[in-house]
Amino acid sequence: MPQQLRRRNPDSHKGNFGHIFILGGSTGLTGSVCLAALAALRSGAGLVTAGVPKSLNSVFEIKLTEVMSLPLQDFGGRLKKNAYRPIREFALSKADVLALGMGIGRHRETSELVRKIVCSLDKPVVLDADGINAFVGHLTEFKKHKSQLVLTPHLGEFSRLVGRSVDFIKQHREKLAVDFALRYNLTLVLKGNNTLVTNGRKIFENTNGNPGMATAGSGDVLSGILAAFWGQGLDMFEAAKTAVFIHGLAGDLAVKDKGEISLIASDIIEYLPLAFKKLRIGKCRRSSVGRAADL
User: Fold this and answer.
1) DSSP class of residue 145?
2) Which letter, b or e, does each residue of 134-151 get, where b requires 16 or more Cβ atoms within 10 Å of its Cβ?
3) Over the stretch 228-241, which tens digit does the pLDDT of each residue have?
4) pLDDT per residue over 164-210, tens digit each?
5) What is residue 78's three-state secondary structure?
6) Which of 61, 83, 177, 295 has fewest C-beta within 10 Å?
7) Beta bridge partners of 52
8) Helix, strand or coil, per DSSP, at residue 273
9) Measured between alpha carbons, how far is 189 from 202 in angstroms, rounded to an integer?
């Protein structure tokens, strides 16, 4: 386990462990933000704020106890373009890492907002779900990004992004992932069986996890974990690699009690404390970590 995630100093305070800004949510998709926010807290983040549509804020206030909220201008439960200014002010003044896209929806105006945030804010960003879909047909805009950027697509999202079939991606997964990360100067987490993490110079193939984790919200949980690790001082690649492993380990611990059929995303969050405990006391086999290589 990276040193930053081991034992904490006795005089630590919440400001030492990162302020994560989870930005997303729309009508019918409030759970995505909640899962990411709770996963970030369970993964050690000192502070978490959810930036959400103003008309839905009461929903988030009820669902989330330890998480703060930032109500933003919306229309019909979707974030408006003019939410950019308060997002920018909060991100630059208070947040350490921004996790963007969970449940944010695909409305044209919201997608424009997502692209503006990624291309103009000089801030670490974890881009997931409909945040990634916002760049379908706008792929060259990734070259404009000012942020340190991690993308976390599943195969379907990556297929839409690069215009290749899922079958083709499966056959050329490693090359496509490495080339994409190099071309757009980012870290790519290509989710699926044996998730790949690459920044174009290094690659990590995860080998834990199970089919029960193929369930709604599992990716939101991963984004929250990743953002939390990044906010605690891990570098971009290390945060992504460690998050993928911890996510899979928690899923493997959960499946022993819940079974593959009944496993849900919140179970992964529930088993994060046990996953961290096992790592701290050295009960994970080295061979279970995965395959890593320099390119």
Assistant:
1) -
2) bbbeeeeebeebebbbbb
3) 999 999 999 999 99
4) 999 999 999 999 999 999 999 999 999 999 999 999 999 999 999 99
5) strand
6) 295
7) 71
8) helix
9) 12
pLDDT digits over 69-103, tens only? 999 999 999 999 999 999 999 999 999 999 999 99
Cα-to-chain-centroid distance, residue 47: 16
Q: Identify which of 10, 22, 46, 14 has the alpha carbon closest to the alpha carbon of residue 99.
A: 22
DSSP state of 295: -
| 78 in Cβ contact with 110 (< 8 Å) | yes
Sign, CA torsion 38/40/45/50:
negative
Domains, the chain, ranges and CATH?
14-294 (3.40.1190.20)
Closest by CA position to 205, among listed 192, 189, 191, 194: 194
In the beta sheet, which residues pair with residue 47?
19
Phi, psi of 87 (to 5 degrees): -65, -50
Q: Which residue has the tokens 């944010």?
A: 104
At position 155, the amino acid (one-letter code) is: L
Closest CA to 227 of 29, 12, 22: 22
Residue whose structure tokens are 């926010």: 37
Inform me whether the pLDDT recorded for 2 exceeds 80.
no
Written as six digits, the tokens of 243 are 């998050």
Sequence-distant (6+) residues with CB within 8 A of 114 are 100, 101, 104, 130, 131, 134, 135
State CA 199 to chain mean position distance. Answer: 16
User: Going by C-beta distance under 8 Å and a sequence separation of 6 or more, which residues neighbour residue 289?
Assistant: 207, 208, 245
